[in-house]
Amino acid sequence: MAQERTGVATLKSNPITLVGPEIKVGDKAPDFKVNKDLMTQVSLADYAGKVKLISVVPSLDTGVCDAQTRRFNEEAAGLGENVAVLTISVDLPFAQARWCGAAGIDKVITLSDYKTKSFGEAYGVLIKEIQLDMRAIFVIDANDTVQYVEYLGEMTAHPNYEAAVEAVKKLV
C-alpha cells in the first residue's frame, strides 16, 4: 500500500489526498515508467547525464497547465542541450501530441503517466480522488539527485517559474 498524504493540497479549496512519498532536495530521484506514445515507455534512465526539469501538470487542456507548459517551452530554448525539460501528465499520449501541435510546443518533451501512474506514485503527486497528477516541479541533476522541489498547495495555482529555471541554470 502506497503512502497517502492528506491535508497538504487542495483543488479549488477542497482537500485532496496525494499518494506516494514527499520528495525532498538531496533525495536520489526515484525511477518511473511513463509513455512517450501509446506503446513506448521511457524511464529516468532515458535522460541519464542530463539535468532534468520535470514540470508536472494535471491536464494540458486546462488554463494553468497550458500556461505552465508554454512558459517552460519558452525557457527550454535558452537552457541548452544538456537539459531535458519534461512535462508529465495523465493525458493520453495522442492528446498530448495534438495539444503540442496546436500550441507550437517543440522544446518540451511531453510524457504520459496514464498507464501505470508510476511517476505520480513515485514522486508523491498522484491525486487519489481523481487519478490525475498534482501540479509540481522537480529539478534533477545529471547524477539523478533532486536539487529543487515545488509541490503546489493549490492545484489551480502557478508554480514559481523563475525559481525552477534558476535551479536549472545553477546546474549547467
TrEMBL record:
Family: Belongs to the peroxiredoxin family. Tpx subfamily.
Active-site residue list: C65
Reactions it catalyzes: a hydroperoxide + [thioredoxin]-dithiol = an alcohol + [thioredoxin]-disulfide + H2O
Purpose of the protein: Thiol-specific peroxidase that catalyzes the reduction of hydrogen peroxide and organic hydroperoxides to water and alcohols, respectively. Plays a role in cell protection against oxidative stress by detoxifying peroxides.
Organism whose genome encodes this protein: Paenibacillus pectinilyticus
Residues in Thioredoxin domain copies: 23-172
Keyword Oxidoreductase: yes
Enzyme Commission designation: 1.11.1.24
Keyword Membrane appears in the UniProt entry: no
Gene: tpx
Enzyme class: oxidoreductase
Annotated InterPro entries: Redoxin, Thioredoxin-like_sf, Thioredoxin_domain, TPX, Tpx_CS, Tpx_Peroxidase_subfamily
Coiled coil regions, renumbered to chain: none
Entry protein name: Thiol peroxidase
SUPFAM superfamilies, A to Z: Thioredoxin-like (SSF52833)
Record keywords: Antioxidant, Disulfide bond, Oxidoreductase, Peroxidase, Redox-active center
GO molecular function: thioredoxin peroxidase activity
Gene3D superfamilies noted in UniProt: Glutaredoxin
